[in-house]
Write a structure and sequence with these properties.
The chain is α/β, with parallel strands linked by helices and 266 residues long. The chain contains ten helices and ten strands. The strands form three sheets. Strands 3, 4, 5, 9 and 10 form a five-stranded parallel β-sheet that branches.
Length: 266
């Protein structure tokens, strides 16, 4: 009788452990969409608890070391998601060079294959060329081998077509992610970078006016901001120079993702 009770208890414990493992696996593979709510008075936004989990899995979205809105010296990080090339993208690269600032371009395979000279211009200007996957496929629920194939294919295209090494920074297509995907990216040597500010700039047929777009950026800017812009936007191409100059005048400098993620001190 005694041994039977022990056996029943043992089976119960195993069952509880199995359920816990299944629940953890389910949560880690759950697909989520990244966003950050804008706040007033140039304060840093805070991601909600579920989304803030990215920072426990090798992800970044803001600089927690630079937070004060009244500091004499403040920092922002310019990042761009680029799936294809047009004249606006070329103008954005020109503006960055003219203003002597750099950013990070998360690019797709189509851009690297079709416009290698543009990718080379990005890198030659001191900008980071980063990984947005090759095909812009949702990777949040994919096994590590599929993620590895997408990242590697983009790396190889950039190397062969443009002679450019891809920096080990990854931005998930459409901001879709799971903690499992983040962990897989880490295993593949990548750090995942989201954003703390973005606005609706991606549709070339529905561009915000330059005045409204510029006001939206400047009203929501904050110390430690990771800014996401789409460089194919006509509005962004027109306002970026003014935005950079105004930020400089307000005491901002433009940091690198190496600074954001601690790679400069590694």
């Amino acid at each position: 009788m005694f041994s039977r009770k022990i056996k029943i208890k043992y089976v119960s414990v195993l069952a509880a452990i199995l359920v816990a493992v299944m629940l953890c696996t389910s949560v880690s593979a759950e697909s989520m969409g990244w966003y950050c709510v804008h706040v007033k008075d140039h304060r840093q936004p805070t991601a909600d608890a579920r989304l803030a989990e990215v920072e426990r899995h090798g992800g970044y979205y803001i600089d927690h070391n630079n937070t004060s809105p009244t500091a004499e010296s403040k920092v922002v990080y310019l990042t761009f998601d680029a799936g294809y090339c047009n004249e606006n993208l070329e103008k954005i690269i020109d503006v960055l060079a003219a203003e002597q600032v750099t950013g990070a371009f998360f690019i797709l395979g189509n851009l690297a294959k079709s416009n290698p000279d543009t990718v080379k211009r990005m890198a030659d200007g001191g900008n980071l060329v980063c990984n947005h996957t090759y095909t812009h496929k949702d990777m949040s629920d994919k096994p590590i081998d599929e993620l590895a194939a997408e990242l590697k294919r983009l790396e190889e295209e950039c190397k062969v077509s443009a002679g450019v090494e891809v920096a080990k920074y990854f931005r998930p297509p459409e901001g879709k992610f799971s903690t499992q995907m983040l962990d897989n990216a880490v295993k593949l040597g990548y750090k995942t970078v989201f954003w703390s500010f973005a606005y609706a700039d991606w549709d070339n047929n529905r561009q915000m006016s330059t005045d409204k777009a510029k006001a939206k950026i400047m009203e929501n800017i904050h110390n430690g901001a990771v800014i996401l812009l789409h460089p194919t936007s006509a509005t962004n191409a027109q306002i970026l120079g003014d935005v950079i100059r105004e930020l400089k005048a307000d005491g901002y400098r433009f940091g690198s993702l190496d600074e954001l993620t601690g790679e400069q001190n590694a």
